Amino acid sequence: ELKVEQNPLFLSMQEGKNYTIYCNYSTTSDRLYWYRQDPGKSLESLFVLLSNGAVKQEGRLMASLDTKARLSTLHITAAVHDLSATYFCAVGPKKGSQGNLIFGKGTKLSVKP
Amino acid sequence: KAGVTQTPRYLIKTRGQQVTLSCSPISGHRSVSWYQQTPGQGLQFLFEYFSETQRNKGNFPGRFSGRQFSNSRSEMNVSTLELGDSALYLCASSFLVFNTGELFFGEGSRLTVL
Is pLDDT of A84 > 70? Predict the structure, then answer.
């Protein structure tokens, strides 16, 4: 059974600092996603990672995937208050259907001035 | 283009009642998935439909059911509601493109069971 673990679950940062969120998964997968969720809102797609060594960057966020280690990271550079949200990683089971994703518990990020 | 549309956005039911939630996918998307989000269990996969056929089902009791219509719109139904069914129900659609598998989520239907 595929399990996805994120850490930390809560992260309080100061503006301007850097930090990394980790996403470990337990079995082989060929796709990993990062989503952002603001309170009371839906999930916004941030990154789709499909191959070992994939790295994608958007603004202050950079995601990477190491399929051998079954690890993805979401790195935050010079955090700003607007990045405060909950971040989820999600993994597609190898033999699962496209819409079947296993989500981590989420990392609630709070960026303080 | 329009995103994934879910209705109703909020609803309150009492135990024992049933509820039907609706989802209209992004135009051209033929795959629709449903997820339940609760503070305790997080985001859990309910089921996925493609071309009116259920492709996959999560670990939920038979009270949870769904269907997809020929225009790709989908509904999910929960019968004999329990307090624990209170949750945000999210619908996601995808185009089944070979190389991405990206899901686009709607705003959700927030169900409160009293």
Answer: yes
